[in-house]
Every structure is written in structure tokens, then in C-alpha cells.
Amino acid sequence: MEPTRLTVNGRTDIGQVRQENEDSIYCHCDEEKPFAFIVVADGMGGYTGGATASGIATKALAANLDGLLSPNFLSASLAEQQLLLQATLLEGVEQANREIIDTKQTRPEFSQMGTTLVVAVIWQNFLIVAHVGDSRAYLWNPYGLQRLTRDHSVVQEMIDAGQMTSEQAQSSQVRNHITRALGIAEPVEACINSWNLKESALLLLCSDGLTEYADDHAIERILATHRPALDSVDHFIDFANTDGGRDNISVGIIEFCQRAGAIAEFDGNAITLKPAQKHDVTVRKNQHSGN
């Protein structure tokens, strides 16, 4: 088996309308080990509040994941490493949520802030993705595009109930209304899925500043045609800005190179973290001008 090779690129852009970028992105690729991750957060709650919340989230996740490759981790079995990775990711999500809530309590001007979150980590050929809100992760390989996350949003619930099509959701007046976010309540309700990758692939993470304009067909076309693959980051941002750029746009890509084999397989290890008492929430993102 050929060794796993990972490369990463990411960028956030203010867009064409907003006065401040409330998105945050953090990308990391280890120089020696097959380990990489991307964190994307899309803040809300006013200009400064949104940027603060998304910044807290990306920093908290990065701090947890940056320290993962300890001697204890590297000496563990692959199964144990996967469990350690999952636990580290969960701890980071919970820490980010806690820090945002704590900041809101001490800074009244940030009382409405919160953020979406999507984070993807690859260790060797193991991929794990966590998300809260409507920032997304996609996987593309020569067999096609697979969306790895399901939006926590009002329109997604309507699609699931058969009350709206995906095409109608693109122009819905409630398309920016999300049902989960970091910084709303404890404990946080996050979804975590994992896969074993058996095929060279591209992993895309993005905020809804991209998916506001690019449907799955457009995303697949850009990932399939632009090379070097990591340059697709710039093509995605240009695509959204050309079509209007009404929101901030964040895009990150991990290029996973592995031996030839089968399509990435979902291993069935799907986890939804449920709070002891459900906190119902519907949050409208982007509450300031420029909606």
C-alpha cells in the first residue's frame, strides 16, 4: 500500500456586501505524519459578535487537535487512535461551545452571538467530521460527489418532511434560519460521522456563503476540472463573488492521495450528541444589513 499523502489549502473572503468577515477558518497539515484538519465557523450576532464567536470556535478546535499526535497517541493501536481522535474532537466542540457561552455572560454586547461549525480530520485513511449548523463538508473522488453533512436548518427540515425541494430551498426566505449553533446552550448538540477512505479524494469544507450560490452540481464540476486541485479554493470564492457575494465565503480543501481502490465507504459510525434536555432554537443568521 502506498503511503497516505495529504495537502491542505483554505481561505476566507469578506464577499461583495458585508463590512466585516464573521467567518473563521483554520487549516493544518502535519509535515511528517498523515494528519490534517480544517475548521470552518460562520459567526452570527452582529459584526463583532459573529467574528468573536467564530474565532473562539476555530481556536478551541485547533488547540485541541494540534496536540493530538502525542507519544501515547502514536503508540496506540489504530482502533484506539480512532477513539482518541473522536474524544479529542468532542472535547474541542464542547470547549468551543462553553467558551462562547462564557464570553456572552461577561460581555453583554455579545449576548446574541453564536456560530456554526464544521470540522474534518484525517488521520492516515480515517476521516471524521463534526458539524453544528449549516456549514458543510463534501467528499469528491472520480466516482462523484458525496455530501457528508446534513444542514441543521429550517429548510432542511422542510425538505426532509417533503414540504420543499432542494431547488426551492435555494431561494427560500428562511434559508438562513438554522436550528443548531454553538453558543446557544449546554450541552451542545453536534453530529459526528466517520469514514474509512480507500480512494484518493478531495475533501471540501465551506460556509453557506459558498452554498448560497453553488449547488452540488457546480461544486462537483469545479472539484473535477480545476488542477492543481487545491487551487479550487480560489475558484469557489470567485464563483460566489461573481454571483453576488452577499455573505462571507470560507472554503477549505484537503487533498487525500492513496492507492487505487474502492470509493470511500461509510463505516456506519454515526453519532448524534443529544443534550439531556433538548433546547429548541431557531436562529436567523446574518441579522444585520445585507440580508
TrEMBL record:
Sequence intervals crossing the membrane: none
Domain PPM-type phosphatase per the UniProt entry, residue ranges: 7-256
Top-level division of the source organism's lineage: Bacteria
UniProt xrefs under PROSITE patterns: PPM_2
Pfam families reported in the protein's UniProt record: PP2C_2
Gene Ontology MF annotations: protein serine/threonine phosphatase activity
NCBIfam families assigned: Stp1_PP2C_phos
Name the record gives this protein: Serine/threonine protein phosphatase
Organism annotation: Microbulbifer agarilyticus
